[in-house]
Each structure stands twice: as structure tokens, then as C-alpha cells.
Write a structure and sequence with these properties.
By secondary structure, the protein is α+β, with helices and mostly antiparallel strands. It folds into 2 domains: about 90 residues, Phosphorylase Kinase, domain 1 (2-Layer Sandwich); about 120 residues, 2-Layer Sandwich (D-amino Acid Aminotransferase, Chain A, domain 1), CATH 3.30.470.20. Strands 8, 9, 10, 11, 12, 13 and 14 form a 7-stranded antiparallel β-sheet that branches. Strands 1-2-3-7-6 form a 5-stranded antiparallel β-sheet, with helices on one face. It has a two-stranded antiparallel sheet with strand order 4-5.
Length: about 260
């Protein structure tokens, strides 16, 4: 295997220089983290499931005509994506009260919200990703007013689509996180969906049983994380009922 240049390693992914200009290879790790990486573990098979679920959902969003960074999958763990300048925001959509929203506002977890709520968080691990307003975003130049309009418009459409998709397979989309980036093509720039969409950054509850099918199983020491992710993949038709994904961790390419 040819050696690759590592660009960046995060909590759940490693980025390498892509084989084509303005591309990046995203490697999905098996690492699980929570509470700003205070809690860590390695869960064999998680990276494969996240890559395949994210590939499926990004292809669907591309088919909607919304721009994303996703180009294609390279193997079970890796994707080829467009190189983008990440906008330093986490865009969180909440459809049902859960997690930090329940704690902040004293709303019982599982309460349906009057309408979907979009929250913005400044991406900064040292500061604990604080919640911000659109006023902060535009005042500090993290995104322009036009970019924020694009982000909100895309977020609303993605929420409508994903909510319906998961409802059709018996899953409630409680909340989820999106990230966006700027993609430059000659003199043109556009905002595109980036990062991933998977059970790592979505809260997914079985409608009938209210079982959690997401990373809360790790956060709350419930166990069965890979099995829950597999259930999501099976319902989406990504894997077959009896299919077992590779669990062994691959060796990463070492840089010089």
C-alpha cells in the first residue's frame, strides 16, 4: 500500500491527502469518545458502520440536489471527499427534548418539541463548544449572513428528509448535528454539507420500544453500541439481516 500524507487526526476520523487535486481521504476510526473526549474507548466495527451509514445518507442528500463534500466510498472504512474549509460551527437540530436541552431547560427527555429547533455551537474543544447566536457568528466573521441563510435552508431540508426517512423504518430522529464547509471552485465559493451523518452524531430512538440506537449507549454505559448501529444499517437496507461486518481494526498507514 502506498504511503499517504496524514493531514489531521480527530476523535473519530483521520484525514489524508487525496489522490486527486482538492480531495481528502477520510478514514473512520473505531474510537468512541464522549464528554469532550473525557470518556474514551475502542469499539471494533464502529468505524465501518459509521462510514457505510454516512455514505448512504450523503448519497441521498446529494440526490436531493443539496451540495455536500462527499464524492464516493473507497472501501469499507474510507471515503473520498472534496477538500473544504470547515465553518467553525456545529449546527444542532432538535425535534424531541433530550440530552443537554433537557438538562438546560428542565424538560423531560422524550417530550416532543412544539417545532424543530436549530441551535448553533462554536467549534472549540478548549472552550467546550459553547452555544452561540447568529449574531455572534456574523459579528466574529465565522460565517457571513448569506452563508448562514444557506446553512439554515439546507439544515431545514435535511431535517425534513431525514425525519421522514427514519420514520419510515420505525426510528424517531430525536436530534442530530451537522457541519458545513466552504468549497472553492475557481473563483466560485459555495457552502456544502461536510463531516458525517451517523449514529455518532444523531440521537435515534426505536419508535415502538424507545430503545436508543445511537452513541448514547456509550455515553450512558448501556452497552450494545455496535449492535445498535448494525440495527440502524439493517433497517436502512445497507447490510443484510445476517451480515456481520469486519470487527478487526486495520493497520493505519504510517507516515515517514
Amino acid at each position: 500500500m502506498n504511503k499517504r500524507t496524514r493531514i489531521y487526526e480527530g476523535k473519530a476520523k483521520i484525514l489524508y491527502e487525496g489522490p486527486e487535486p482538492n480531495t481528502v481521504v477520510v478514514h473512520f476510526k473505531d474510537d468512541a469518545t464522549a464528554f469532550n473526549a473525557e470518556k474514551k474507548a475502542v469499539i471494533d466495527g464502529k468505524g465501518v458502520l459509521n462510514q457505510r451509514i454516512s455514505e448512504f445518507l450523503f448519497n441521498k442528500i446529494n440526490d436531493m440536489g443539496l451540495p455536500t463534500h462527499f464524492i464516493r466510498s473507497l472501501n469499507m472504512r474510507e471515503q473520498l471527499v472534496r477538500a473544504v474549509e470547515i465553518i467553525p460551527l456545529e449546527v444542532v437540530v432538535r425535534n424531541v427534548a433530550a440530552g443537554s436541552l433537557s438538562k438546560r431547560l428542565g424538560i423531560e427527555e422524550g417530550t416532543a418539541l412544539p417545532r424543530s429547533i436549530i441551535e448553533l455551537y462554536y467549534k472549540n474543544d478548549k472552550l467546550g463548544d459553547p452555544m452561540v447566536t447568529e449574531e455572534h457568528v456574523t459579528a466574529f466573521g465565522w460565517a457571513t449572513p448569506q452563508e448562514m441563510d444557506d446553512i439554515v435552508h439546507m439544515t431545514v431540508r435535511i431535517n425534513d428528509f431525514l425525519s421522514g426517512l427514519f420514520l419510515g423504518i420505525g426510528i424517531r430522529l430525536v436530534d442530530f448535528k451537522l457541519e458545513f464547509g466552504r468549497f472553492y471552485e475557481n473563483d466560485m465559493m459555495r457552502v456544502v454539507l461536510a463531516d458525517e451523518i451517523s449514529p455518532d452524531n444523531c440521537r435515534l430512538w426505536d419508535i415502538a420500544t424507545k430503545d436508543k440506537l445511537d452513541k448514547d449507549r456509550f455515553r450512558r454505559d448501556m452497552g450494545g453500541l455496535v449492535e445498535a448501529y448494525q440495527e440502524v444499517a439493517r433497517r436502512l437496507g445497507i447490510i443484510q439481516a445476517n451480515e456481520q461486518l469486519p470487527r478487526a481494526r486495520p493497520k493505519l498507514v504510517k507516515n515517514d
